[in-house]
Specification:
Strand content: under 5%
Number of strands: 2
Order of helices and strands: HHEEH
Distance between the termini: 114 Å
Shape: rod-shaped
Low-confidence stretches: none
Radius of gyration: 39 Å
Mean pLDDT: 80
Largest sheet: 2 strands, antiparallel
Helix content: over 70%
Structural class: mainly alpha
Strand order of the largest sheet: 1-2
Length: about 110
């Protein structure tokens, strides 16, 4: 740890000598001295998860929602098909009943 601190001081001194000021942010200095490790910002703790993981999670969640939506829509469609079939049968039944009521009147008129 002491070695790392000395290296950071040397980096600061080098910046001051070469550029007249130290323009490095703490993150840049830590990354320069400690080296970057994926998913971890040296000296700063864990960083944000890589975008690929987030994208994968979003894609998986989207697929799950889509599958649930499809199941729900199929259930609703089947329910509507039953309702439509029932309505058609009722209309056909009423139409036949009306036709039977008219037959005797039609025969009497002729």
């Amino acid at each position: 740890m002491e070695e790392t601190y000395k290296t950071l001081l040397e980096l600061h001194d080098t910046q001051m000598r070469e550029k007249g000021e130290d323009k490095l942010t703490p993150e840049e200095a830590y990354t320069t001295v400690l080296r970057h490790h994926s998913g971890y910002i040296p000296g700063m703790g864990p960083g944000p998860k890589p975008l690929e993981r987030k994208h994968t999670n979003v894609q998986k969640l989207r697929e799950e929602i889509r599958a649930e939506f499809d199941v729900e829509m199929n259930i609703r469609i089947k329910g509507l098909e039953v309702e439509v079939t029932t309505c058609i049968q009722e209309i056909e039944s009423k139409t036949l009943a009306l036709q039977k009521q008219r037959e005797p009147k039609d025969q009497a008129d002729h």
